[in-house]
Amino acid sequence: MADTPRLDVPSGGARRFGSFLRLNPDAVGQFAEGIARFLGTGRFLAVQTILVVVWISLNVFAVQLRWDPYPFILLNLAFSTQAAYAAPLILLAQNRQADRDRVQAEEDRARATQTRADTEYLARELAALRVAIGELATRDFIRGELNRISSDDGEERRDKPRRRDPVSG
């Protein structure tokens, strides 16, 4: 019974197979992004177009150099191989970009939340200052009060008889 392999536990063979092939995911991702960037350039399209034109020209017009006659099966195989490698590399580069975009969006959301909290705090402080200023005496109010007091003093002086200074007489 002990020699019977368990089906619910992965076999050790799978671990041994992956042990010799250890790739750094960041290095593979950077390589994929480099390839994807190159595949999306005009230089790549121009070089590929020149190679295809030369390939077809040599196989059509140079009879002695003909290695891939008219249906150009070898050329199609080369395009298929290129597509087979380019598509996963481009998808890997897009996945890495999506991860970077997700992290950036989370940072933007956090920054927006902090900005909103700061703005709300400043709005509350500004409202408190406006209320406090409304309760303070303004310059015009103080001037008006001083003018009223000074005019009241003048009226009181006119109503009351002046005292004579005993010394001056």
TrEMBL record:
A Pfam family matched in the record: DUF1003
Transmembrane helix keyword on record: yes
Cited InterPro entries: DUF1003
Keywords noted in UniProt: Membrane, Transmembrane, Transmembrane helix
Transmembrane feature ranges: 44-67, 73-93
Protein name, UniProt field: DUF1003 domain-containing protein
Organism name: Blastococcus saxobsidens (strain DD2)
